[in-house]
Design brief:
Blueprint lengths: L20 E3 L5 E4 L5 E10 L2 E7 L5 E5 L4 E3 L2 E6 L35 E4 L2 H18 L2 E4 L6 H8 L7 E5 L7 H10 L8 E5 L28 H9 L6 H13 L9 H15 L2
C-alpha cells in the first residue's frame, strides 16, 4: 500500500548505534527491552514483509516481536537478524494461520459469547483488534466492546460486576506512569472484586493509530503533531488528507486500517498487551 500525498513533514530518524548482529535460532533465550518479556525462540516467520519471532516464557505463554533492534541476549544488546541459511516461512506458507499468527481452526463454528469481555477505549481500537484477532476471539467466544473513553472506568466496572467466569480485560491508550490514564486504572483496580477478575493493560501511544508500524504506511516514523492541536487532525493534515469533519477522521482511519494485514504490521507493545488480555480471559 502506498500514498502519494503525505504532505511536508520531517521523517528523519536518528541513526542507530552499531550493535552485534546475531541470527535468530530456535532455543535462543531473548529479552525484549521495551516490554521486558523474556522467552525462548519457538518460531520465526515472515509476514507482511517483516520477520517476526515468537518468544515463549517459562509459563508457556507466547508473545510475538519483529526482528531487529531492541533485544538482549545474555544481557547484551543485539540486533536480531533472520536465521542463516533457509529463510523463515513466508506468509503464503503460513496460510494455515490467522491474522494474529495463531493456527487456524477449520470447520469450527464461533462459540456463543461468554460473559467475559474485552473493553477498549474506542471504535478504532475495537476495529483494529477485530481485524487481527477476530478469528481467535470468535473461537473463544470473547466479545470486544468500545468504552468511548475511560473517564468513568471505575463506575463501568462496578456496573459490570466482575467475578469468576465473568472477567474483564481492558486495553487503555497512553497507559504510562504519571498519566491520567494510569491514575484512572489504579482507582478502578481498587474496587472490591476487581483483583483476579479484571486486568487493565495499555500501550504507550496517544492513540491506537500509532500502534501501526510506520513502515507499513510507507513512512519512517509517525509525524509530530503541534502541541494544542487535536492529534488525529494533526496526523491527517500531515498526510495531506481531509481533516475537518468526523467523517474525514473515519475515512482516514479506514485508509490506515486497510494497510494492516496481520499482527506483523503492528507494534510489539500492542501485540503483547492484547495477547496478555486474551490469555487472561481464556486460560484456566
Amino acid at each position: 500500500m502506498s500514498y502519494d500525498n503525505w504532505g511536508p513533514q520531517d521523517m528523519s530518524a536518528p541513526a542507530k548505534r552499531r550493535l552485534p548482529e546475531v541470527a535468530v535460532q530456535r532455543g535462543m533465550v531473548l529479552e525484549d527491552v521495551q516490554s521486558g518479556w523474556v522467552g525462548e525462540v519457538t518460531r520465526v516467520e515472515k509476514s507482511g514483509g517483516m520477520h517476526v519471532v515468537a518468544l515463549e516464557d517459562r509459563r508457556g505463554k507466547t508473545r510475538s516481536f519483529q526482528l531487529g533492534f531492541g533485544f538482549l541476549l545474555e544481557g547484551q544488546a543485539i540486533r536480531l537478524m533472520p536465521p542463516a541459511g533457509r529463510p523463515p516461512a513466508s506468509a503464503e506458507a503460513a496460510a494455515g494461520r490467522t491474522a494474529s499468527g495463531s493456527v487456524r481452526v477449520e470447520g469450527r463454528r464461533a462459540q456463543v459469547a461468554k460473559a467475559s469481555r474485552i473493553w477498549v477505549e474506542g471504535k478504532h481500537d475495537a476495529e483494529l483488534v477485530e481485524k487481527v484477532w477476530g478469528d481467535d476471539l470468535r473461537v473463544e467466544g470473547i466479545v470486544v466492546e468500545p468504552l468511548h473513553g475511560v473517564d468513568d472506568l471505575r463506575a463501568a466496572i462496578a456496573a459490570f460486576s466482575p467475578g469468576p467466569g465473568r472477567k474483564l480485560g481492558i486495553l487503555v491508550d497512553h497507559l504510562v506512569p504519571g498519566s491520567k490514564e494510569s491514575r484512572i486504572a489504579a482507582e478502578a483496580m481498587s474496587l472490591p472484586g476487581a483483583a483476579g477478575n479484571v486486568l487493565i493493560v495499555g500501550h504507550p501511544y496517544v492513540d491506537v493509530w500509532q500502534a501501526i508500524r510506520p513502515r507499513v504506511l510507507g513512512i519512517e516514523q509517525w509525524p509530530e503533531v503541534p502541541r494544542g492541536m487535536d492529534w488525529k487532525t494533526g496526523i491527517l493534515k500531515a498526510f495531506g488528507w481531509p481533516s475537518g469533519t468526523a467523517e474525514d477522521v473515519g475515512l482516514g482511519w479506514q485508509k490506515l486500517l486497510g494497510a494492516v494485514r496481520s499482527y506483523a504490521d503492528l507494534e510489539a507493545s500492542l501485540l503483547g498487551r492484547v495477547e496478555e488480555v486474551i490469555d487472561f480471559l481464556t486460560v484456566p
